[in-house]
Amino acid sequence: MKKMMISGVTALALLTGGIVGFGGVGSSVEAAQGTTKFKDVPATHWASAAINSAVEQGYFKGYADGTFKPSSPVTKAEMASILGRLSDQPNATTQEKNNFTDIPEWAKSGVSTAIAKGFINPSNYKGKLDAQGALQRGEMATWLTQGLTVVDPEYKQALSDVTNTVVPAKEYFTGTLANAQKNAVAVALGTGLMSVANDKTFGVDRTTTRAEVAVLIARYAAVSKTKPANFQGLNELRAVGLTGTNLNIIAPKYQVISESNYPYDYSKVTGDFSKIRNQEIVTKTNYADLKVRNWIVVNPYVTDADRSIYYPVFVDEKDRLVRGAYYSFVEFDLEIKNTMNQLQGGSLINSPTINPLKSPNSEAIFSYSAPRISNLLGAKGVFNVKNPIYWAEGLLHFDKELNPEVLLTLKNGTVFRVRPN
C-alpha cells in the first residue's frame, strides 16, 4: 500500500489542535514558508506554511494593514472563487448552469467556474447559494468530495460505498450527523482531507476559516492526485459500509474455513460478513434476539498510516494486549424478550471475539460518545430498555491455543466461519 507522508504543517496542526489529517502539503508550501510575512501569522502558527503558499499562488491576498486574519470565516462566494482557480481540476462531464440569484458581481465568474469543475451542484440548492454566508465545514466536505468525483470516478463509487458505514466522528455516534452530509464527511475523513477536532466532532456547522482553507487547498491538490485505493482509512470505511466489517482490511489472514467436513450444509458457510449483518443470530440462551450491526477490528501494534481509522475512536495510546490479539468491537442490536441483566446478555454468544458482555472503557470511546452498556443498565445491572444498541469489546485471536475461530450461525441456516490461515 502506498504510504502517505505527513508534513511538518500537519504535524504542527496535530499538536496545536488546528485542522488535522492528511498532510502531503507538498514542496510549494514548504518553499513558501518564510517568503510571505503577515504580522498575525507568526512562523509558529499551525498553518503558516500553507497560508504563505496559498498567498504566493494567488488564492488569497493579505490586508492593507499587513495582516492575513487567519481566523476570519470564508464566505461561500469566496470559497467558490478559490476552487474555481484550481488549475489542475478538470471540468465535469455534465455541465450545470449557474442559476443562483444571490451572487455578487465580483464572484459570478468564480462561482460559475466552480460549478463547471464539479465542486458545486446547483440542483442541491433552491436558486440561492447564500453566497455572502460563511461556509460551514459540512458544506465544505460536500464541495470538496464532489470535486474529487470529477477527478476520478472511483471517488464517486466511494461516496456511494460509505452510505452505511460507521463514521469516526462524535456526531455519528450521537445521531446528529445528517444523512445528507454523512457520505461526504466519511470520504473527507477517509482520505485525510478533513478531520475531527480535539472534541472529536467533525463540526459540520462550524464555519471555515481562512487558515483552514489555505491548508485544505494544499490537501485537496494532494488527495486529488492519489487513487482512492491508496487510502487505508477510506478502504476501511468503504468495507464497513458494504459489508459491516473492516476485517479483510485489518486482518486479511482471517478467511473462510474451506474444509468440507463441517457438520452443516457447507454450501451455507460463508466468510462474507454482509450476509450476517443485521440478521438474527442463533444464541446460546433465550434471553433476547440478537443482531450485529457492525464489527470493527483494530490492530494495536501498528502506528501512523498503518493504523485503523477507528483506532482513535476505541483505543487509547496506553492500551496494550498480549499474545498478538487484535481488538474486536461489535455493535449489537438486541430485542429483550422479558428482562435481562448484563451477565445474561453476555451468555447469548459464547465467543471471545463477538462478545456482548462488556463495552470498552477507554477514554477514547467516552470522548466519541459511542453507546455503551453502562448507559443502558438500571438497578442490579438489568437493562432498562427492551431494544439496547451498544458497542462491546472482545478479542480477535491468532494464537491457535486461544481458539481463534469466529463462528456465527443465523436462524436462516447461514454460517459465518472464519479463522486465520
What order do the helices and strands come in, and which of them pair?
Elements: H1 8-16, H2 27-32, H3 48-56, H4 76-84, H5 108-116, H6 137-151, H7 153-161, H8 170-174, H9 179-190, H10 210-223, H11 232-243, H12 247-250, E1 254-256, E2 269-270, E3 288-298, H13 311-314, E4 326-336, H14 342-346, H15 363-368, E5 389-396, E6 406-409, E7 415-420
Parallel strand pairs: 2-7
Antiparallel strand pairs: 1-7, 3-4, 4-5, 6-7
Helix pairs in contact: 3-10, 4-5, 6-7, 6-9, 7-9, 9-11
Give an account of the 3D structure.
The structure is a single chain. By secondary structure, the chain is an alpha+beta fold. The protein has 15 helices and 7 strands. Strands 1, 2, 6 and 7 form a 4-stranded mixed sheet that branches. A 3-stranded antiparallel sheet has the order 3-4-5, with no helix packed on it. A hairpin with a 5-residue loop joins β6 and β7. The longest helix is centred in the middle third of the chain and has 15 residues, at 137-151. The protein is elongated. The chain starts with 7 loop residues before the first helix and ends with a strand.
Principal-axes geometry comes out as: elongated
Helical segment tally?
15
What is the helical fraction, as a range of percent? 25-40%
Helix-strand category: alpha+beta
Strand content: 5-15%
Radius of gyration: 24 Å
Averaged pLDDT: 90
Reading the helices and strands in chain order gives HHHHHHHHHHHHEEEHEHHEEE
**What is the tally of beta strands?**
7
Unreliable segments of 5+ consecutive residues: 1-35
The main sheet comes to: 4 strands, mixed
**How far do the termini sit from each other?**
21 Å
